[in-house]
């Protein structure tokens, strides 16, 4: 388990990023507008299922072949291309969720379960519970 803590400036304020300004002439998707945050976690290069959790409620369930790549090149710092149509909407959506909850003083925790059967495990979890941010699976 790790906490997802946005990077802060010397005054303790969350650093807000606007990567989409680099792509101002491209069409942004609905989660590509506004501010994002960056954060850092220790992520091994293994397959498995991860849970974003707030106050013992699972907010989001995801799966990955490579945990380090999924977070280091996905959620942790939003790229300009992910803000545009055709970009990875989930990265932007969940980064915004983290930013909003962190601004409210809440802490999101990240749990990881190592498994090669990550597709089956994720599917079973999503069939067992409803999460507020797994759009296509709920």
Topology:
Elements: E1 2-4, E2 48-54, E3 57-64, H1 67-75, H2 80-83, H3 89-103, E4 108-114, H4 118-128
Characterization of the model:
This protein is α+β, with helices and mostly antiparallel strands and 138 residues long. The chain has one domain: GIY-YIG endonuclease (3-Layer(aba) Sandwich), CATH 3.40.1440. Helix content is 28%, strand content 18%. The protein is built from 4 helices and 4 strands; from the N terminus they run βββαααβα. A 4-stranded antiparallel β-sheet has the order 1-4-2-3.
Biggest sheet: strands side by side, in what order?
1-4-2-3
What is the percentage of strand-forming residues?
15-25%
In total, the number of domains comes to 1
Indicate the radius of gyration in whole angstroms: 15 Å
Can you tell me the residue ranges where pLDDT is under 50 for at least 5 consecutive residues?
none
Distance separating the two termini = 24 Å
Structural class: alpha+beta
Reported for the largest beta sheet, the result is: 4 strands, antiparallel
Which second-level CATH architecture applies? 3-Layer(aba) Sandwich
